[in-house]
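Folded chain entry —
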Amino acid sequence: MTPAIEIRDVRFTYPDGREALSGLSLRIEQGERVAILGPNGAGKTTLALHLNGLLTPSHGTIQVGDLGLSEETVGEIRRRVGMVFQNPNDQLFMPTVAKDVAFGPANLGLTGDELDARVREALAAVEANEMADRAPHHLSGGEQRRAAIATVLAMRPDVLVLDEPASGLDPAGRRELINTLASLSITQLIITHDLAFAFELCQRSVVMDAGRIMADGLTGDLMTDADLLERHRLELPFPFRSADPGA
């Protein structure tokens, strides 16, 4: 089966000379939900921005399904790979949530009943129908994150990429987001340094550091490798920590 995403030997250097991706290769299968873990500066967000052509590699190739990323294909790649940014305000800017969700499909030329149906479908997927007529800035953090996901789902992408989706959420918003993402059958890449969040959602995790992949395996196995996590500045979730002998 053709993978959802295949990245081969991708390198990227910022204008200041810092190499953010150093020969990175990664294959994501259709329907997988994979966590991309790593400390700040590991290259996680840089990788995400490559997946729909917001950044272009200086070397290597990126394939989304049967389509290679190029100047000629970047428009279709951006439809196939939906990005949910860390700050929902980057995606919510219209007077109501429904108008935000309709924005992308409307720019594809959808109108009338077809557009309305697309909006309802996307809101239903994140259990946010009741938010349709609300102003985005009146929503809670968790509600804003779900609304931002709906704006991406309205484009019917093949892959959903989320950058630090749990950042800044209270426990209730975090739980709502976990339930939402777990209910979606779409291929997902979840970029985070929150191992507990990754453990709840992703069977597979990839550890990145210094623009390279340092480990790739079952999330539970990686979380029992305390040395690996310490080397890459990741904090072991409480259930996996060794008991304190002095307690």
User: Anything to note?
Assistant: The radius of gyration is 18 Å. Residues 243-247 have pLDDT under 50 and may be disordered. The beta strands are 5-13, 19-28, 33-37, 59-64, 67-68, 81-84, 159-163, 187-192, 204-209, 212-218. Residues 112-125 form the longest helix (14 residues).
